[in-house]
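Give me the fold.
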Amino acid sequence: MKSFTVLKEDDGRRVDRWIKSHVPALNNALIQKFLRLKKIKRNGKSAHADDRLQTGDELTFYIEDEFFAPVEKKDRLLDKFRYNVSVVYEDENILLLDKRPGLLCHPDENEKVNTLLTHARAYLYQKGEIQESGFQPVLVNRIDRFTGGIVICAKTEEAMHILSDKIRTHEIEKAYLCLTEGRLTPPEGILKGFIVKTQGKSRVRVSKTSVPGGQYAETKYKALSFDKGKSLVECVLVTGRTHQIRAQLADIGHPLWGDTAYGAKPDNDRHYQALYSYKITFLFESDAGALSYLNGKSMFVKNVPFAEGFLKNRIK
């Protein structure tokens, strides 16, 4: 047996609606059944579904205690979503995912559900690591839809704040592999300039000098291999601007293979740019709190499809 006293805010509320909100384990059929069997009473007398409650009324339930246990609400999307994730690294604070090219990181105006964020949350939810009322894991960095590679997911609010701060202060190094057209000369260097967003277009341009609206961009590059008119290049971001690697390499005459938006020749074998965020290194220069154990560690993806066969022809 369990009794409840009706509070002022529920004055005038129907009995069945009060029960549904206060004893969620009882569905409509059970409410009607227990009222009919007089297992739910109002002020010691029979209660009816459409009775209007008054402040101070006492509702008594002569039913099993299990009906009063907290009901775990399920997120219907995350509980049923068929996630597809490739985990690079995972611990109690962070999750590093290898995003496949073509998948959005976050929802946009056309795609609301099939995103890396949904896949990550469904993966963690079905492992029992997300509670509906708890922190919802977030992606703390993003890469272009048609770029593949590592994206960092924070599992806790503390990790989110630390990682966001470390990205802002350039204490997390992101390295990319890409295929460019032609042989880079010199094979190693630093690209500097200003990224300018072009109004009304989904690409940017590079300016050698500072211009209104331009953002300084710096990329370190090193050619690793050359074969059949293409170079395999490692790029390390010093800054993180929109389309930075794509635009800067195209600006020096070496667009990424398949990147027709930045001047590459059409190629039936590639329908998007050959660019992959393949390595992340944690280089903390200041206190990282709960994530201090990551300092100095590098994480890699296991496979970069377009790089296969190139490393055997490494530039000496």
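The mean pLDDT is 92.
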